[in-house]
DNA sequence: TATGCCGGGGA
DNA sequence: TCCCCGGCATA
């Protein structure tokens, strides 16, 4: 990739929405980005202009998503993100790890989270922004009355001094060395993600039409377009590296969008605009063992099992999401003292028990402690082959 | 295979 | 109610 020389640790005066309000020296600072094809360079404040100009296919997506009325239109980006240079490496590394480790578990539900933000660009390859401990980046999504499709959207930042206009710009700003969408090594195709379909068409219009008619059962002539079909296809670059392709196959993002699926950070707080989402933390997906760690050494301490029913529930309807959320992936962020019972999420085991049998405790029981020789020292329950009352799990 | 414990039955 | 045990589930 043509280098994007950045000196991003710049701060611009912004209003409460993270919008740069007043020009200042920062705008004339040494931020410049290079077009990967033409080599044309853009000064920092020219980047925004380029969104609709010369180099938009390298810096920003060329098309606006064709969402319907239910979708909140994108607000024009107004600034770029100030990101300290020293954060870039960390973000890049995190993105790579997450892309590799999360796999299908994050399908379709890229999250924006200040403690491990995950985004997905137009090809479905995740990029992640790691926790910015003190400042630098804090992302929330624009309000939307419906679960927003994967979109090219204005991700304003809750930190007053940060804002992101879209993830493609973010690729530059974060120094993503492989901006998938900018590759011109192959032709962009569009693949239907509907289960057992996988049809590949050459244009977004065609694939949308295919999805509308074949899967959504809608009339081609139907004017109303709520953009739902955008969920069900992704773009693929037929000559692009397999990693990018493979991941994009798994991601029902809009071909015309570069933003991540718009599941807001505020999800973790329960609801956004009346719609609840599960928080899917990339961290929890990639390293569940950290989250589910339970000290078995303290088996005598009763741990309250937390089942999926204790977690935020998916409050929106979703029509046959193809290849989207696999249940075990929906793992809430839990404290380390909480415990998840995966069987509460996954399909029930082979033979349903008529009575919910108490899970076998891990604590040493009287039999174990005292042995058969000292059976008289067992608790009554143990002697009666009942649940031990002395060493309770 | 060992262990935990549910369900049932006898005293 | 106490006590025991068959049998099942699980580690």
From TrEMBL:
The organism's place on the tree of life at top rank: Eukaryota
Write out the annotated subcellular location. Nucleus
Task: Indicate where this protein is primarily found.
Answer: nucleus
Which residue windows does the record flag with biased composition (Polar residues)? 343-353
One Gene Ontology BP term is:
regulation of transcription by RNA polymerase II
Record-linked InterPro entries? CR1/CR2-DNA-binding_regulator (IPR052253), Znf_C2H2_type (IPR013087)
Q: Which Gene Ontology molecular function entries are recorded, alphabetically?
A: DNA-binding transcription factor activity; RNA polymerase II cis-regulatory region sequence-specific DNA binding; zinc ion binding
Q: Which UniProt keywords apply?
A: DNA-binding, Metal-binding, Nucleus, Transcription, Transcription regulation, Zinc, Zinc-finger
Q: Where is the C2H2-type domain?
A: 190-220
Q: Where is this region: Disordered?
A: 343-362
Q: Which GO terms describe its cellular component?
A: nucleus
Q: Tell me which stretches of the chain form a coiled coil.
A: none
What is the recorded name of this protein?
A: C2H2-type domain-containing protein
Instruction: Supply the source organism's classification.
Output: Eukaryota, Metazoa, Chordata, Craniata, Vertebrata
